[in-house]
Design goal:
Strands 1-2-3-6-5-4 form a six-stranded mixed beta sheet, with helices on one face. It starts with a helix and ends with a strand. By secondary structure, it is an alpha+beta fold.
């Protein structure tokens, strides 16, 4: 059996060395476990877990959120005066890159023979003057 913290660590180590953080257009922020820096305006990638069951084949859900600051009306004047317009192009790029990194060959990402990540869903959510791409990932292990 492994703990929720260990499941987060497994995904963290994988992502840190993946194309998500080596791509020329990688996120500008940090890869974080649980929380990001207060008032961050960077493209942080945050891993959270809902918990794991205690069955012989453990499973649970991990959320991977990728934050992107909204468009700046001073730099893109035709969007109006508010800062509530999402940067759709950046969200799309980082979402596609994340999907590529997490889906492996057949929609599942196997690390060894006993750990599997599978994207169950994704969405775009609003958080003040930024939006984030949220991936709900099923985690399964037989460790």
């Amino acid at each position: 059996m492994i703990t929720s913290s260990e499941a987060v660590d497994i995904l963290y180590v994988y992502l840190k060395s993946s194309e998500l953080f080596s791509d020329s257009k990688k996120p500008t922020g940090d890869l974080c476990k649980g929380d990001r820096k207060e008032n961050s305006k960077l493209e942080d990638v945050v891993i959270n877990i809902l918990g794991l069951n205690r069955n012989p084949v453990q499973s649970g859900y991990i959320y991977l959120n990728i934050y992107v600051i909204n468009l700046d009306p001073l730099k893109v004047p035709d969007i109006g005066t508010g800062k509530n317009v999402r940067d759709t192009a950046r969200l799309k790029y980082l979402s596609k890159l994340t999907q590529k990194v997490l889906e492996g060959d057949n929609g599942e990402l196997w690390l060894g023979q006993d750990v599997c990540f599978e994207v169950e869903s994704d969405a775009i959510e609003e958080d003040g003057d930024q939006h984030y791409a949220s991936f709900k990932i099923e985690f399964t292990t037989i460790k």
